[in-house]
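Support case: user asked for a sample of complex input and structure output to validate their parser. Sending the pair below.
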Amino acid sequence: MGAGHAHTLYRHGHSPVHALPPHCKLAAVFCFVLVVVSTPREAVWAFALYAVLLAAVTRVARIPAGVLLRRLLIEIPFVAFAFLMPFVVPGDQVHFLGLSLSVPGLWGAWNVLAKGTLGVAASVILASTTELRSLLLGLQRLRLPPMLVQIASFMIRYGDVITDEMRRMSVARRSRGFEARGVRHWGVLAKSAGALFIRSYERGERVHLAMVSRGYAGTMPVIDDVTASRAQWTYAAALPVSALAVCLLGWTL
Amino acid sequence: MHVPDGFIDLPVSAATGAVAAGAVAVSLRGARRELDERTAPLAGLVAAFIFAVQMLNFPVAAGTSGHLLGGALAAILVGPYTGVLCISVVLLMQGILFADGGLTALGVNITDMAVVTTVVAYALFRALVKILPRTRRSVTVSSFVAALVSVPAAALAFTFFYWIGGTTDIPIGKVLTGMVGVHVLIGIGEAAITALTVGAVIAVRPDLVYGARGLSAPLKLRVGGELVDAAPASGPGPVAARSTRKVWATGLVTALVLAGFVSFYASASPDGLEKVAADQGIDRKTEPHHTGDSPLADYGVKDVDDARISGGLAGVIGVAATVVVGSGVFWVVRRRRTETAAAGGNA
């Protein structure tokens, strides 16, 4: 029954990380990523410390390590790109296992891999511990334009509906013996996309009319206005501040 | 093409973030004109549609398949402003929820995939629809070309960001050929699917296709056996021509800021291509460019010592010169056109 109200990415729980107000978490994650990106890539140990920090947060949030690692797989395309770098970047060459690799390319690959992975891990922790609706409220509290937040909330709310519509169309196509095998079948797929657009647009009009008839005048009422206490801000700031300390050490050492 | 954290350096990320924020702000105002007060629900549903359609895989050849990027499709179906908004929201949600694309690279991603694709596609689409005969087929053909160009244009924009702010020194020529080569192929699939989708929507609900507005024949009434033009509907007509001065000023300021500020941050060291050329001794053979001793040679002002400030200054002067020349040409052309119109009227 609860399906549709909670996103599959969210893991319900009662940890201290779950309890933090969403805008504190958003700000903390953003500052953390900013600090990570501005760390010099030669300070290899600093990235290890960041990983330890994230592991600690995962522990506090009681997210199983397996879940976190599985969701890290999203960055595989860029891992592939990073593995290409040592072969295409010119510069001093080192020989390793019979392969000729370039030193600046290795540094570049390390840079993208380390920073990208830490960024993805931070976002995964955020998405696993924050409910979608409160994430959107948090964005609004962080002064994102309300119209943008409304559009995002409609997208999230109806994303599953539209995706399900698309899946039903796919089932209908397949039950009539259709199987997309090549360029010849693009026409059918495009017609489905066109039908999906018309259905989405018309649903949007119906939703709007239903909202207007219930008194919508361009803004959504905020029912539960979350405010963060000083203690909660301090708690959320623990991650980026300790990361900043590591970063400063990385620059000075 | 989702750029992760740490791929583009911080100054360029910040600059593209500012560009993205400006574009989203402009689109928020523009989208109200495109969708009136229904903006939020409709744009949200269209964003959900884009999100879903990006999951629609179409088979390309044996085993491989591609998926739609959707920038051109959104611009043609719902208009450029709403298109930029929808794709930006999709990218924002992908960044925060699915960790697809870095948070610090959000500006790069939005500028690249939401703004560049949509603006390029829509500009090209409008131009083609104006030139071609006013039929449904020409709308489909224009959307094919618009989508075809928009994808390599985004790849080109990415290469540009990488060139001024990439964290690894890959020779820019390799990045360019790799990115643009792959994305020309992707663009062909994108173009075919976009054109077919637009064609399918036009066949059923031509009124929903923003790019095909004004295509329907005017309503005629038969009054006393004669066809008479019906009174124009009181609905929203074509967007009234607004003063172009504001648009013009915004564009000029943006260009100046980009040329002056961003090139200030762009490293003063030789770029990848020049470096490769220098390493391999290609540049020994090149003869000095015949304007090599002009005061703006090599994107720097001669008597200014600091490489960065001089580069920024040269950028600003370059933009100013382009604007002056461009407006001069435009002014001459416009004058001649009004003159011929007046002459034709007299004859």
